[in-house]
DNA sequence: CCCTCCGCGCAATAATATTTCCCGGCCGCG
DNA sequence: CGCGGCCGGGAAATATTATTGCGCGGAGGG
């Protein structure tokens, strides 16, 4: 099972750093119940092993003038791998597209987009996204409000699973 | 215009901390071109003003055993505010639901969910989500792969806008 | 039973954060 | 004009933290 190479202390470290990425190492060590040096060694190991991909400040997008959030459901004409990759590359190059996920089902991709205002988004939609090569259909939905936005791992679920399988 | 209370240095600070939330204050100060103390003062101010909501480690969800990601489109029977709020509260309480956005259009909500495996998700889907009060329809799409996942602000777009309006 | 290895903790050192104080520019008012 | 408050920045001192090296002890294997 993935994650089993990690012991309880490692998982606690990940959970704490997910909750507060700027926690000092001594505070982190105190919370997970070991001393600072081995704690820092574990963190470095977790980083190098790829369990921790990085640390990021959570910036208030709206306050910075990006008041529009949109989910765009995109269908392509060709689902050949080369065409899928080309579309993904375009998404990575569009700054207004913050997430791009390939899906199963009737829609090929879902994009999460941001924009300063509706007209900016509509320009992007009509001149860039819809006009892009191989794009067959685009359906967009404005985000009215956000009730929950906690990307990451539900560590409580993880611990529950591990204790059951033990 | 929102964001205009921030000068160029503040925006640079936000951009740097979004890219690397564990950057030391001296390194941050060096990058934005001021000395450490005023830099730290600015960071504190940005935190208290809500521009910085927090700092989080970006944990590799898949490596930790959550191999399934799903987008769920949910339609409700009643869109009265009280019913919307009740549904949002339920979403906040479900650990497998990581994001919950209210949308315009034919679908009322879109949820981003994670799960250790398909059967866990299907149990959640049938026993919790679909069975929840006021839920009229649920359409789910599995995430096949993720081409881009960079939540946050496209600071290059922001700077371009500000220089144009100047 | 001994040996090796791995991870922890301790102590010392280097780096960093944080506070304090002071300086210079920038208004608004006298 | 000149004055005085007001930010925002820099320098130095202090406290906190990160980091390294080393010795110890337990787990697993010979």
UniProtKB/TrEMBL annotation, chains A, B:
GO terms for cellular component: cytosol. Pfam families: AsnC_trans_reg, HTH_24. SMART domains: HTH_ASNC. One of its GO terms (molecular function) is sequence-specific DNA binding. GO terms for biological process: regulation of DNA-templated transcription; response to amino acid. PROSITE patterns: HTH_ASNC_1, HTH_ASNC_2. Residues 6-67 form the HTH asnC-type domain. Gene3D superfamilies: 3.30.70.920, Winged helix-like DNA-binding domain superfamily/Winged helix DNA-binding domain. Keywords: DNA-binding, Transcription, Transcription regulation. It comes from the Bacteria. This is AsnC family transcriptional regulator. It comes from Rhodovulum visakhapatnamense.
